[in-house]
What we know:
The chain is mainly α. The chain has helices at residues 7-14, 17-27, 35-49. It has one domain (7-49). The chain is built from three helices and no strands. The longest helix is centred in the C-terminal third of the chain and has 15 residues, at 35-49. The model has no long low-confidence stretch (mean pLDDT 80).
Amino acid sequence: MSKVYDVNRIINIAKDTNEFCCFFCEYIKRKDVNVNMALDVLRISSIYLNRYSFQIEEEY
């Protein structure tokens, strides 16, 4: 199975945090989605919208 992502759709959904949360919760429930694919979607949304969070291990 090839990994194909609609980057524009992910970015548009990620602009609204609540909408992205609902989308992502449903996305990870799909049988054809594995952990790496789910992490890729998170990376895409954070790269394009500059929403990286940095925490040191103690804060986590």
